[in-house]
Amino acid sequence: MGCDSCLHNNLKPDQSMEASHMSTTTTATPVGTWNIDPSHSNVNFHVKHLGIATVRGAFNEFEGTLELTDDLATSKAYGTVQVASVDTNEDGRDEHLRSPDFFDAEQYPQLTFQSTEIKAVDDDELEITGDLTIHGVTKPITLKAEITGTEEDPWGNQRVGLEVEGKLDRKEYGMTFNQALGSGNVMVSDKVKLTLDISAVKAA
Length: 204
What we know:
It contains one helix and 13 strands, in the order ββββββββαβββββ. It is mainly beta.
């Protein structure tokens, strides 16, 4: 998974870049089926600790696919994250996040996303609405995705880059653990920011 050269098998370059139309807005959507390359992508989250500092974490095991067509109404985005791969660079905190206080990784080992609508915001930005399932609870979420470009890698694979952002309230997913502080702040904010840096390879 960490070796670039292994990606060339069964993949062919495709130089096509077609415009997709949604209402009156045109976006330079790279048509095709694109599989996320985990070795060149990141799934991150950011949350306030004690109301004053931001703790950043990531999930190290994930997969996903974008199926982009000329008509964005028929396009799809979906993916899966392995909860046990959570990594905040502190082992004790990671174990707590895997526990029933938060993700309960043993009972709910995966996070999943399945799009329900993709539409163009402008030439480079998409709005992706879908169902996000965390901790056994499914809620709608809207993500902003910027298409940062396409490129052919040294092994002839066509790639697309995206930067994706979203926000959620963890309480809505049944993760309510917290501790009040004397100042009125809480140990962990309910608001969570999601950021994904995606490099995806076009399927043959």
